[in-house]
Design a protein that fits this description.
By secondary structure, this protein is mostly helical. The chain has 26 helices and 2 strands. It has 2 domains: about 65-290, no CATH class; about 330-550, Orthogonal Bundle (MetI-like fold). Helix content is about 65%, strand content about 0%. A hairpin with a 2-residue loop joins strand 1 and strand 2 (about 320). Helix 6 packs across helix 11 and helix 10 (about 200-220) packs antiparallel against helix 11 (about 230-240).
Length: about 550
């Protein structure tokens, strides 16, 4: 057996080397850790959040959870509106959502998919109290005790040592937490009685939801407050439901006598179907299209944003095209790609000779001209873009010059603004330095002796350039093209100012949905598609040209 080699400290040499290597790797990791953290915070997490927003759709299920469950049994392919149980669930869902002033948020979300739903939810939210007031007035007219918050608390709260409806409390905490995006864990001094929950299941759920809300968000004491009108509606529904008499017969807790008296009263109160009540609020509730939209976007994750981003939509019959007058996004994507490529080619054609001249001039002159190339970087983008708007307009400097030299007639001036032409001109000027600089850095490394050698062997100027010089400058063209294309495809300030309706990019629509329409899901889907297109083109470039051939000099 070979003798083990030891380090100076007496440890095995192999173990000592491994420990030193680990320390070296750890030091290297610590050095790049700030960069990794920066990339994580500014690149990875935002992209992940964007991708999540493009499919996330929990707002429907969180705002009207009972309605979503009830709609599972509705056939969206027919022409009939849902049955009574769906409208009943909608009433209780919308009531608490309107108290939290969150029902309009759901309306706005669904309005992206079907115009008019936003006003439908807003209008209905204002009329929910009127639906339940009929029952509240009837109960109070029979016995004043029904407007006493202390009586309600004594009836609904579990007495000391009595069994509690913990499942009801947990369920309502979850529902209210999902609705408000808040943690509902405060001890409110109330636990629903299991006995009352068995006798009045819907009333217990509604009262518990009310108690959680007023204690957590209003800061009130449950025992001192009168319940919402929806609690009275729930009491009527419980007493009017089949088997109510049998359930009450088994109940002997607080309020038993009042409940039995109310049971007799309920038989005299005219039934008010929720479907008819919602129809009175707004006739659009009878439109199957409204319910089809709610059902289609009920899941917590949806492909709807991505479908809308390519001019498609979800319907009860499956995926279909948007109406022709609303198909804009595919056109914008195609226009963005074509114009970005046009701008890139324009920058190559203009930037290549400038870069060649800079690379072949004496250093002193080249440095002076380089200042002119870099000068746009010292000027605000907004100022440069606004200057082009002045230059390109119908009565602008360029048109005036063309008229003066006789190139165009005064009554036939060129349309250079508020179209694709203006966008290409302005963005070519703005992005030209990003093409010149990579080209210049690569051309500087090309030895002049190569071209001289080619000429000495009999090649013409054109042949020596095309066969010797140009191939060596291709890495600079690749680097400049990638920079210009990626920058141009995401530009929105310049197209917004000079592009009009025919020269805007898809990025302008993304900015609109983020800042104006607040349809962040659609904006995220458009951004994700744009990112996928850029990555696909990057992959194609790597396969055809090779990313290893892209150089920034050296």
């Amino acid at each position: 057996m070979a003798e083990q080699v030891l380090a100076a400290d007496g440890t095995p040499l192999k173990a000592s080397l491994n420990r030193a290597l680990r320390r070296q790797k750890m030091r290297a990791l610590l050095l790049i850790a700030p960069l990794l953290l920066f990339i994580m915070l500014t690149f990875i997490i935002p992209i992940g959040q964007m991708l999540f927003r493009s499919v996330e759709n929990s707002i429907v299920a969180d705002t009207i959870p009972r309605t979503v469950v009830a709609l599972d049994n509705w056939d969206a392919s027919g022409d009939a509106e849902p049955d009574e149980i769906v409208f009943q669930a909608l009433f209780y869902d919308l009531f608490v959502a309107s108290e939290a002033k969150l029902h309009t948020r759901l309306g706005s979300r669904l309005n992206y998919e079907s115009s008019g739903i936003s006003s439908l939810f807003r209008k209905s939210g204002r009329g929910l109290d009127d639906i339940a007031d009929v029952y509240k007035d009837a109960f109070v007219d029979q016995n004043d005790v029904w407007k006493d918050g202390t009586f309600w608390f004594a009836m609904m709260n579990a007495a000391d040592g009595a069994p509690t409806a913990t499942a009801v409390m947990a369920q309502q905490r979850d529902l209210l937490g999902n609705l408000t995006s808040a943690t509902i864990n405060k001890n409110i001094g109330f636990q629903p009685s299991l006995d009352i929950a068995n006798a009045l299941p819907l009333t217990t759920q509604t009262y518990t939801e009310w108690a959680l809300y007023i204690a957590n968000f209003d800061g009130d004491t449950v025992a001192d407050e009168k319940p919402w009108e929806s609690v009275y509606a729930a009491l009527f529904d419980d007493l009017h439901a089949p088997g109510a008499a049998e359930r009450l017969a088994a109940y002997s807790g607080a309020g038993a006598a009042e409940l039995n008296a109310a049971l007799t009263l309920v038989a005299t109160i005219p039934d008010q179907p929720y479907r008819a009540a919602f129809t009175d609020l707004d006739g659009d509730w009878m439109s199957p299209e409204v319910w089809q939209t709610i059902q289609a976007y009920a899941p917590r994750f949806t492909s709807g944003y991505f479908l809308n981003a390519i001019d498609l939509q979800k319907t009860s019959d499956g995926v279909a095209w948007q109406p022709e007058n609303e198909q804009v996004y595919l056109t914008l994507f195609i226009r963005t790609l074509i114009m970005s490529m046009t701008i890139t080619i324009s920058c190559i054609l203009l930037g290549y000779p400038v870069a060649w001249m800079l690379a072949n001039l004496p250093a002193r002159k080249a440095n002076m001209l380089m200042i002119l190339v870099l000068l746009p970087f010292w000027t605000s983008l907004l100022v440069r873009t606004s200057a082009w708007k002045v230059l390109l307009q119908n009565q602008g400097v360029i048109n005036d010059l063309l008229v003066w030299v006789g190139f165009v007639a005064d009554d036939n001036r060129l349309a250079l603004i508020n179209n694709a032409t203006g966008t290409v001109i302005a963005m070519t000027h703005i992005l030209l330095p990003f093409m010149i600089l990579p080209l210049y850095s690569v051309m500087q490394t090309i030895p002049v002796t190569y071209v001289r050698a080619a000429k000495s062997l009999g090649a013409t100027d054109w042949t020596s350039f095309w066969r010797v010089y140009f191939p060596q400058s291709i890495p600079g063209i690749g680097a400049g093209s990638i920079l210009v294309f990626i920058l141009s495809i995401g530009y929105y300030i310049t197209p917004e100012i000079v592009g009009g309706t025919k020269g805007v990019f898809i990025s302008n629509r993304i900015a609109y949905h983020i800042s104006s329409s607040l349809n962040w899901g659609l904006a995220a889907a458009l951004g994700a598609i744009l990112l996928a297109i850029v990555l696909a083109l990057y992959w194609a470039y790597d396969r055809i040209v090779g990313i290893d051939n892209v150089k920034l000099g050296g």
